[in-house]
Design a protein that fits this description.
CATH superfamily of the largest domain: Galactose-binding domain-like
Strand content: 35-45%
CATH topology of the largest domain: Jelly Rolls
Order of helices and strands: EEEEEEEEEEEEE
Number of strands: 13
Number of domains: 2
Length: about 190
């Protein structure tokens, strides 16, 4: 699992890679941006990003494994998967569910895009606070807020402008309610 920083002038895209990191001037064939080439002489800088979440749906179920709906599913490069959210991260129903991406370094975040699952369950992405910062206090959920989702239609993506907020951690958080948090893809864009 990689989170790749691709220079585009002064703008960089912090995007997940599905199979292997970008190489100089060549797309990976997987993940977002496949087939795109960099500007002449450009070079990708890559770092391994780590996603974690407050719990994982189905952890105790006999037919589920930890990785079935684990945190890494939200950065696997697959926005839309047919069927029952097979490529989405899903928490258990709990108070204050959260998901966090550690970019392993601090960036100026210009925008965040969230994609909802395509098989219904709209409430699982309603009221999600996007939090960005460098603190792990309260699992990163006390960092400054970039935005809050309203209802995200099934299979749709919604983008939030974060105006260059600085942070190493990007959190998705549903505060003060018993809920399930489901994220099928999270894309983070920013500058170094």
């Amino acid at each position: 699992m990689y989170v790749t920083v691709r220079p585009l002038g002064e703008q960089c895209i912090l995007a997940p890679q599905e199979e292997y990191p970008w190489r100089e001037g060549v797309g990976s064939g997987g993940g977002r941006g496949a087939g795109e080439s960099l500007e002449a002489g450009g070079r990708d800088r890559e770092s391994t990003g780590q996603a974690v979440q407050s719990s994982t749906y189905g952890w105790g179920a006999a037919n589920a494994t930890f990785s079935t709906w684990g945190a890494a599913k939200a950065i696997d490069g697959i926005r839309y998967a047919p069927g029952s959210a097979s490529s989405c991260s899903i928490t258990d129903k709990e108070l204050n569910p959260w998901w966090r991406l550690d970019l392993l370094d601090s960036y100026y975040i210009s925008s965040v895009t969230i994609t909802n699952r395509g098989d219904g369950w709209l409430e699982q992405t309603t009221g999600v606070e996007i939090r960005i910062g460098n603190s792990l206090e309260n699992n990163g959920n006390n960092n400054p807020r970039c935005g809050v989702t309203s209802s995200v239609p099934a299979g749709s993506s919604v983008s939030f402008s974060c105006g260059g907020m600085e942070g190493r951690y990007v959190n998705m958080y549903i505060p003060n309610i018993q809920a399930v948090l489901s994220l099928c893809e999270v894309e983070v864009y920013g500058t170094v």
